[in-house]
Write a structure and sequence with these properties.
CATH class of the largest domain: Alpha Beta
Number of domains: 2
Bound molecules: glycyl-adenosine-5'-phosphate
Distance between the termini: 27 Å
CATH architecture of the largest domain: 2-Layer Sandwich
Strand content: 25-35%
Structural class: alpha+beta
Radius of gyration: 26 Å
Strand order of the largest sheet: 3-14-15-16-19-13-12-6
CATH topology of the largest domain: BirA Bifunctional Protein, domain 2
Length: 479
Amino acid sequence: MTSTASGTDRSLPEALEAISPVRRVPADADTTAGEHDTTMETIVELCKRRGIIFPSSEIYGGLRGAWDYGPLGAALRDNVRAAWKRHTIQLRDDVVQLESSILMSPRVWEASGHVEGFTDPVVECRSCNARYRADQMDTNAAGEEYCPKCGGKEFSEPREFNLMFRTFVGPTQDTSTQVWLRPETAQGMFVDFAHVQLTSRQKVPFGIAQVGKSFRNEVTPRNFIFRVRELEQMEMEFFVRPGTDEAWHDYWITTRWNWYMRLGMRPENLRVRDHATDELSHYSKATVDVEYRFPFAWSELEGIANRGDFDLRQHAEHSGKQLSYFDPDLDERYLPYVVEPALGVDRCALAFLVDAYRAEDAPTAAGKVERRTVLRLHHALAPVKVAVLPLSRNDKLVPAAREVGGLLRPRWATQYDDAGSIGKRYRRQDEVGTPFCVTVDFQTVEDDRAVTVRDRDSMAQERVGIDRLPAYLAERLDL
Ligand code: GAP
């Protein structure tokens, strides 16, 4: 906490050190990605082949902008969410959690400005009527905008297209029953602000956080799970005393930067870009994008906005309800300002997958060199923490390996695999980022009741007694 002449001032953020220097770049920074360890095609192929992420309803040809997460992908998502919740909620005493509903009163979206302004400019190809986002048109070698479907170069004037999905509640379908699928989770935190503040007895400054699905009818979903129509967000609204908002904005930029660093993201692939004034959302006083160097370009990973009192003021006016806060320390009532870090689970999972991907030469047991693919995911994010591998499907080895699996499974996500050569199984686990492989061999059952533990990154192998195995792994797993 910050010390002042009058003691500890809770309204200002505590001094915070960045794990590595936060790289700030101006609004017009170059977005070219440059040389990359991988391509989007490689990541998409790996995800499909290993059942991590693949197109939704694929047997019917799929649905653009919708993706399914298989067993490993679902575990990766769980881990991304858990890491975010742990650092944003669990390890703090000034942030509480909320799960508000996806369907809300349509008046919420009128007050928030989404009905009026949550739009993208759309143009229509004059030859084939295909529609595109006007600010994301493909260009040919001569720099001319063209239609990727028919090659046409004539387009209509841009028209604003609202990105919210609409549906109806109840058995009649007219304007009186129309509601929207929420395009952001944030509004739940604003409309529930007074209730949550009162019942959780939090004092400003404090935050309300939630993780949940949002929906955006994106004109051009693209780049795999980077831009999807059904997304999941992790958002936090941090309510502060007006005048302290800029200090809190800086604090959250460093806090969020540190989160990525703690999870092993390569600092050279991350930067913080200030929004230009004409780029700011209608609600924002100041915004930065945390950008990741995706293979296609430096692009937004997370937004951290200073929303001022825009949202609480709008909802107070539209609902006629009191949403101001009585500050007992100041003996004064005010509308808190809000700092909002907002991140998508899907986009975050993609950034961690890209960041972790390596194709490298590795020595084999036979003394040769082989190419291996390895996901150097932080242990906390790895879908499987330990793989248990009997050397062969031998009658003695299988039950022993099952026993070892049973010992580890209550503590960590464990996978049993007895198919193929041991080398192939190591490669399979490397490719999905499993930090440790435990091999059960004949010596285990006939002699020492010990197993071979192999480390994903160093590929070093160590013999460890089964009794000591849980403690051995607990010491090494960085969760
Ligand atoms: N409440 C503020 C808000 O929603 P945003 O910048 O529109 O701000 C926040 O979204 C984050 O949600 C983005 O930084 C991104 O990570 C994720 N996101 C937004 N639209 C997305 C989409 N169509 N597909 C995947 N992720 C998306």
